[in-house]
Write a structure and sequence with these properties.
46% of the residues lie in helices and 14% in strands. By secondary structure, it is of the alpha/beta class. The protein has two domains: 2-83, no CATH class; 96-275, Rossmann fold, CATH 3.40.50.450. Helix 6 links the parallel strand 3 (101-105) and strand 4 (131-134).
Amino acid sequence: MGTDALARLQHAIAATRFGGGQRTFAAKVRTGGNRAFEQVLNTLSDEQLVQVEDQARDLLGSGVEALLLGQAHYPKLLASSRQAPAALFVKGPVELLQKRAIGMCGSRQASAEGLRAAYACADAAARRGYAVVSGYAKGVDLAAHTAALACGGATVIVLPEGINKFTIRRGEFSHLWDPDRALVVSQFAPDQKWFASGAMTRNAVISDLSQALVVVEAGETGGTLAAGQYALQQKQTVLTLQLFDAPPGNKLLMENGAKVVRSRQHLEAALDYLESDGSKQLTLM
């Protein structure tokens, strides 16, 4: 097991650091399978190979594992997407990626009402046995993770940077932190710093790990709107919150097929629909 885990980490590190770009390398894996990982390792210099091996041992020692596209433990829902990364670095209970999940996205500068709504939505989803999947920004993301942990549920943190950059945020979240109920996921090289395009790319993973995406407050432009638009393009259920006055991005998503959620009861009705695999009629607007 340890040898296999170490080899997967070496493959994941080589792919994310030297694979020539995520989309390009993922396409190679889809056509060539595991050979693509072996091929990139074979192109490394002796010095690069030593770096990869050393980093893999360090990651394994700190509890990080790697999941590779096309292999058994890679999450099936994500694997079916054309945006699926070739490799994921994970720390925590990997089995959470097999649970039914609800994605959450929203503004870093969400209103107080938006934060309360995000907390309520995540709480409702977690209490029904869904894993809550979100990014790790302040605002809606952190409210969603906090709510899931506070009610005894599970949460999946999808990073816009390398997994070595992860730290537990201070405050209520740190007091609730439970490594048995929280999984950290990154599709980037372990030491990759935050960058804007990485955050946008990460949003597709949040969406593709989830049965539905809840959009709290989306502006006229930006990552939250882009995440909702991507989910709609994938024919995914998108639930947008209608607070007192829907933000411009929420309105745009509604015009393009997103369902309107006006209350916790509305959200629970949508979750009933998802649990029935569409056998019930979803009557939300």
